[in-house]
Amino acid sequence: EMEVNFVKKNFPLVSKFIRVLMLSHEERNAVEFFKSKVDPSVDLKLPESVFDDDGNLDKEGLESALKAVRNFLNSKIELVDILFGDTYPVVLEFMETFIQENFMDFVNDVFGADESKLQYMPEIYSQIMKDLCQKLENSENGGASFHTVVREFFNMYLEPKIVTYLDIQPRIFQRAIFD
Questions:
Q1: Checking CA distances to 167, which of 6, 61, 81, 83 falls within 20 to 30 Å?
Q2: 13: Cβ–Cβ under 8 A, 6 or more apart, which residues?
Q3: Considering only CA atoms, which of 65, 41, 40 is closest in space to residue 51?
Q4: pTM for this prediction
């Protein structure tokens, strides 16, 4: 029944089944059901690059990619709020897993091994915060600190790229001086 109603997008009825699972202390089964229905590799199509052929940042391409991520995440935030409300925390775990496993794969693919693309890291980071992080919907399931925690997840997982950017900047500066 839960499966059939999920396919029919009858989410209020699915939430009743979720509540039954919760009352039966089957929280993990409820969460696993949700996770089995959310597949970013199927539901979210992102470009392979946000750089043009000359290696310059394609701002419209970046904006479009971040909008696609934001729309995907907002739809899942809404779904979690319908299915779980504030009865069992799901959305923060989902967000962290998505950022770590899917979003960072995208970021790593975008930059690749070309260190010169890292010169755009401040701009890309700013766009992620402005066009993605700040424009996520509020979440009943995530609570009052939802946006703060999600921003911290992005900062935590983007930190290695930021550190690499900070490491290469002096080398780029040195090369520019001596060229």
A1: 61
A2: 5
A3: 65
A4: 0.90
